[in-house]
Amino acid sequence: MSEGTMQRAAQRDDQRAQRVQLLPRLLVCAAAVPVMLVAAGCSGSDSDSAGAAQGSQQTAAAGADAGSASPSASPTVEAAAYAKLPEPCKVLSKKTLGELVPKGSKSGKEGTSSDTSARSSCSWSSLANNGVKGSQFRWLNVSMLRFASDANRGSGDKQAQAYYADQVKAAQTAPGAKNGKTEPVAGTGDEATVVRYDLKKKEGSFKQQTVVARVENVVVTLDYNGAGLAGEKSPSADDLVKSAEKATKEAVAAVSAANGQGAGGSSDAGSGGASSAPSKSASGSASPSASEKASPSASPSKSAAKKD
Fold first, then answer.
1. pLDDT higher for 210 or 307?
2. Is 156 exposed, middle or buried (0-12, 13-18, 19+ CB in 10 A)?
3. CA-to-CA distance for 136 and 238, rounded, in angstroms?
4. Sheet strands side by side (includes 204-215)
5. Is the dihedral of CA 192, 197, 200, 206 positive or negative?
6. Residue 263 and residue 69: Cα distance in Å, rounded?
7. Predicted confidence (pLDDT) per residue in 85-98, tens digit
8. pTM here?
9. Whole-angstrom distance between the N-terminal and C-terminal Cα of the chain?
10. Which tens digit of pLDDT belongs to each residue from 1-30?
11. Cα(197)–Cα(225) distance, rounded to whole angstroms?
């Protein structure tokens, strides 16, 4: 064997020895790579889960803070100006009663009410017997309704405005009414209207006047009618209207005075002691039934029939 052949053989043996030594190292590295990948994957998963949990906790905490920082606001409503009503049978002076119901100024009869601070009324009747000339009949009724401010219904003033409009409309559409006229009344509360009409009954021809007035959260309704019976001539409608308007102004002034205010009513009614909120029972009396309201046409004719 030549020397060159022997050298090449020795080189091949060295290369095989190097490959044999390198193989275990490659196997060890190959086995270590998956372990490192798995470890890295587990570490990343744990980090993501912890971050998500922390984010959820922060979101929940933020929501709780937002809820506590923005509580729902309680509804508020302006307090009503008047907290009570005057005694209904004392709202008119003796002089006024003597003019409107000359034979019945002491016949005042107070209406029934479960809460006189919210609803009250009084009525008077007069029959002047003139013998063979017949008789003059008069009937007068004053009713008052006070509205309390309520978060659901609104302010007492707004409720009174709506009821005032309803009362005027009811007078304008009274059954059997003829020759009706509607006119504003100046200088009486915050707003006032008179509705006048004729009403034919079997006892005679009645002249009906209804004056509706509102002063702040109180509505005053005054019904006044007259008739000439048994051959007596009918009274002057104009005279009856003047008397009714005068009496209504007096009743409105009595409402303001009962609450410690002057006769005007609207200029300073929102200040002072009278601005305290009325009782809850007053707001519950805001919608009287038809049977509780005065019936100006029915009452006089019945009274006249009994006396004739």
1. 210
2. buried
3. 16
4. 109-110, 119-129, 135-146, 218-229, 204-215, 191-201, 178-184
5. positive
6. 48
7. 999 999 999 999 99
8. 0.65
9. 170
10. 555 555 565 566 656 655 555 555 544 444
11. 10
Burial 250-274 (b: 16+ CB within 10 A, else e): bbbbbbbebbebeeebeeebeeeeb
State how far the Cα of 240 lies from the Cα of 242, in Å rounded to an integer.
5
What's the pLDDT score for residue 37? Answer: 41
Q: How far from 245 is each of 224, 258, 301, CA to CA, in Å? A: 10, 20, 22
Rounded Cα–Cα distance for residues 164 and 216 (Å): 11
Q: From the centroid of its chain, how far is CA 99?
A: 39
Average pLDDT over the chain reads 76
Would you mind telling me the total number of residues written for the chain in this entry? 308
What are the phi and psi torsion angles at 16 (to 5°)?
-65, -40
Give the contacts of 223 (CB within 8 A, at least 6 positions apart). 139, 140, 141, 208, 209, 210, 294, 296
Residue 246: per-residue pLDDT: 97
**Which residues, in sequence order, are CB contacts of 263 under 8 Å at separation 6+?**
252, 253, 256, 257
pLDDT mean over 139-156:
96
| Coil/strand/helix, residue 39 | helix
